[in-house]
Amino acid sequence: MISLNASFSQNITIVHPNYFFIIGLSGVPYSSYYYIFLFITYFITIIGNSIVLLIIALERNLHSPKYIGVFNLALADIGETNALIPNMMKTFLFDSQYISYNACLANMFFVFLFSTMQSFTLVVLAYDRFIAICLPLRYHALVNNTNMTLVLSAKWAFNSSVVALMVSLITRLSFCESTVIQSYFCDHGPVYRLACNDNSVNRFMGTFITTLYLVIPLTIIILSYLGIFLALNKITTWESRLKALKTCVSHLLLVGIYFLPISCAYIAAFMLSLAPNARVISTSLAYAVPPMLNPIIYVLNTAEIKDIMRKMLKNRSTPSGDNISK
Fold first, then answer.
1. Which of 25, 64, 200, 273 has the most CB atoms around its CB within 10 Å?
2. Distance of alpha carbon 167 from alpha carbon 270, whole angstroms
């Protein structure tokens, strides 16, 4: 009886460390250049996405379902970048690789929340393009500002609940051996693998999250574009086909930039035994670069935003020209 009680008490004892040690880029020559690159990436991401947010918020012509989605994507880009890169810069500037247990869980929550919102927002934008091209007469009935706001709000609530559940399940794990996280942030997989008790629920949750926010969204986007290409084949003239397809170019670029690097990083980690530093570099690039490129793509490939920026630049240059003439 005494041995049974001892075994039971051992099973329910949960050991939470005070700190985790994030390995980051350890022992990589010239790693300082990579951190400088990340700082430049961070600066461009924040400035670029803030400009997109301001343009959409201030320009009434852009208060449409499509740009509500773009606004949401820019917001998620800023959130994810702020959750990731400043912590890496802290490691570089202050040589501080320790993070408290609670701060680690908070970091995990925000990184995954904003990353999942990026994925789901790209699905919503694919739906917008699908309805616009395949069901143009019903577009304003099916896709309007109210519906888009409700859908995105529901996605924020749903993603927050799922990610919060994933993070809360970490608290049932006991860390009685190593507390060294083989990543550059409090990544879910490297954290739960450190546990010395049963982590099967966390392993299932990791697979579920990957399927829900990577496999399913990419599948839906591919199916939606198959429908779009079938609808385009029914259009008689090439000019009309190209005009319709041109409205999808920006979104297709965003999808490729987001899903291709992160899919390659996951596949490489699964198929190959990557060294910790190689995994850190590949996943950090997959997470850091897309938010930087997204606003650049929308500025360069979206006629409405380009026209607005031309008008803004023209209005700025006009007073100076008038003053010179006077």
1. 25
2. 22
**pLDDT tens per residue across span 236-248:** 788 888 888 888 8
Contact 173, 186 (CB under 8 A): no
Residue 166 has, within 13 A of its CA and on its CB side, a CA count of 30
Residue 137 DSSP symbol = G
pLDDT at 272: 72
pLDDT tens for 84-96 read: 999 888 877 777 7
Residue among 288, 268, 248, 247 nearest 118 (CA) = 288
Q: What Rg do the C-alpha atoms of the chain give, in angstroms?
A: 23
Dist CA 82 CA 77 (whole Å):
9
**In sequence order, which ranges of 20-143 are alpha helices (DSSP H)?**
31-58, 65-94, 101-134, 139-142
The tokens describing 265, both together, are 């990083």
| Burial category of 284 from C-beta neighbours within 10 Å (exposed 0-12, middle 13-18, buried 19 and up) | buried
Give the 3-state DSSP-derived string for 173-203, with helices as H, strands as E and coil as C. Answer: CCCCCCCEECCCCCCHHHHHCCCCCCCHHHH
Copy the structure tokens of residue 73: 């994507």
